[in-house]
TrEMBL record:
<keyword id="KW-0460">Magnesium</keyword>
<protein>
    <recommendedName>
        <fullName>Adenine DNA glycosylase</fullName>
        <ecNumber>3.2.2.31</ecNumber>
    </recommendedName>
</protein>
<keyword id="KW-0378">Hydrolase</keyword>
<dbReference type="GO" id="GO:0051539">
    <property type="term" value="F:4 iron, 4 sulfur cluster binding"/>
</dbReference>
<keyword id="KW-0004">4Fe-4S</keyword>
<keyword id="KW-0411">Iron-sulfur</keyword>
<dbReference type="Pfam" id="PF10576">
    <property type="entry name" value="EndIII_4Fe-2S"/>
</dbReference>
<feature type="domain" description="Nudix hydrolase">
    <location>
        <begin position="231"/>
        <end position="358"/>
    </location>
</feature>
<feature type="binding site">
    <location>
        <position position="267"/>
    </location>
    <ligand>
        <name>Mg(2+)</name>
    </ligand>
</feature>
<dbReference type="GO" id="GO:0000701">
    <property type="term" value="F:purine-specific mismatch base pair DNA N-glycosylase activity"/>
</dbReference>
<keyword id="KW-0227">DNA damage</keyword>
<dbReference type="InterPro" id="IPR004035">
    <property type="entry name" value="Endouclease-III_FeS-bd_BS"/>
</dbReference>
<dbReference type="InterPro" id="IPR003561">
    <property type="entry name" value="Mutator_MutT"/>
</dbReference>
<dbReference type="InterPro" id="IPR020476">
    <property type="entry name" value="Nudix_hydrolase"/>
</dbReference>
<dbReference type="InterPro" id="IPR023170">
    <property type="entry name" value="HhH_base_excis_C"/>
</dbReference>
<dbReference type="InterPro" id="IPR044298">
    <property type="entry name" value="MIG/MutY"/>
</dbReference>
<dbReference type="GO" id="GO:0008413">
    <property type="term" value="F:8-oxo-7,8-dihydroguanosine triphosphate pyrophosphatase activity"/>
</dbReference>
Length: 366
């Protein structure tokens, strides 16, 4: 079994490895730990095809840890806009500042020092340190879990902590200590391209001789996962308060909140017994101490986050009284419609902006 994982699999990888910008070695023939780190953070919860253009733009603007550390958070979030899970960007930014302050701008190769950086969990540490420094740490991500549970026909719940620990132990034992980076990438690549969740390409898999799930003719029966609870749904109302100079009122989300540091249109959850329009008026009163009049809806957006779904109703609003001021002290700004693109917004808000711009461009009938 070990031979299959340490010989057949990496040999297959050498011929099948997909070119990716973060896989290219630098002038010294080694991979740049900073680029590996950025890619690993971006690739969490994100497909390679989606992450690649973001990676190129991000590393063109911030080619080194120091460039990232010196940037403002708004610019970092703007370059991350659309990738989701924005705490990854905020943590990476703070971690870069810590690397400059404590490690003279060199990404630490020591596991304890790396794990002390914001957002550096066991997965990121194992991936970055093994790929950049060949530190013998086995990665356990969704691809690795799928490959291991299939090869060993592990039918315990793969979401449970106990099974995760067993799988990590298994990966640690199988890891090739002489080439840990190559080994990790081989397993992840196999999971991403051959041992896929549906219709795995078993006949051309380098592990098919030893794979128990394949021998049973049931690869898709693994991994076994417990059912998740139904995803909650929230109805949200937001107001687009537009002044006579065609500027829109936006506010920044608190740092410690979900989507923290991004900008958004003011609003909130629709309560029981309220219409979305009524909720919009109430939320703006509570959040910004203003009275608004709601007119026609501009957009209705459906959006799914990892743990809940929303339906967002966006209304054009007229300021009736009051001077907007955030109740929580977060920054607010009046921004011309055509300058909204300079700010980082969550995806649902971005779709509202698209609808607003389309409306502004549409010929007036009256
Ligand atoms: S033989 Fe099939 S199920 Fe087994 S590891 Fe390979 S692709 Fe996955």
């Amino acid at each position: 079994m070990r031979a299959a994982f340490r010989e057949a699999l990496p040999a297959w990888f050498d011929g099948a490895r997909r070119p990716m910008p973060w896989r290219e070695p630098g002038p010294d023939g080694r991979r740049d730990p900073y680029r590996v780190w950025v890619s690993e953070v971006m690739l969490q919860q994100t497909r390679v095809e989606t992450a690649t253009p973001y990676f190129r733009r991000f590393t063109e603007r911030f080619p080194t840890v120091r460039d990232l550390a010196e940037a403002g958070q708004d610019e970092v979030l703007k370059l991350w806009e659309g990738l989701g899970y924005y705490s990854r960007a905020r943590n990476l930014h703070r971690a870069a500042q810590q690397v400059v302050a404590d490690h003279d701008g060199e990404v630490p190769s020591d596991e304890e020092a790396f794990r002390a950086l914001p957002g550096a969990g066991p997965y990121t540490a194992a991936a970055v340190l093994s790929l950049a420094f060949d530190t013998p740490l086995a990665v356990l991500d969704g691809n690795v879990i799928r490959v291991l549970t299939r090869v060993f026909a592990i039918d315990a719940d793969a979401r449970s902590g106990r099974t995760r620990r067993q799988l990590q132990d298994l990966a640690d034992v199988l890891l090739d200590p002489a080439h840990p980076g190559r080994w990790n990438e081989s397993v992840m690549e196999l999971g991403a391209t051959v041992c896929t969740p549906r219709s795995p390409a078993c006949p051309r898999c380098p592990l098919n001789d030893v794979c128990q799930a394949y021998a049973r003719g049931a690869p898709e029966a693994f991994p076994v996962v417990s059912k998740r609870a139904p995803v909650p749904h929230h109805t949200i109302a937001v107001g687009l308060v537009i002044d006579d100079a065609s500027r829109v009122l936006i506010q920044r989300r608190p740092e410690d909140a979900m989507l923290g540091g991004l900008w958004e249109f003011p609003g909130g959850k629709v309560e029981d017994g309220e219409t979305p329009g009524e909720a919009c008026v109430r939320e703006l009163r509570e959040e910004l101490a203003v009275e608004v009049e709601v007119s026609a809806p501009i957009a209705r957006v459906e959006h799914a986050y990892s743990h809940f779904r929303i339906t967002m109703h966006a209304f054009r609003c007229r300021l009736v009284s009051g001077e907007p001021a955030s109740e929580t002290g977060e920054p607010i700004a009046w921004v011309p419609i055509d300058a909204l693109d300079d700010y980082a917004f969550p995806r649902a808000n971005r779709r509202v902006i698209e609808a607003l711009i389309e409306e502004a461009r549409a010929p007036r009938l009256l």
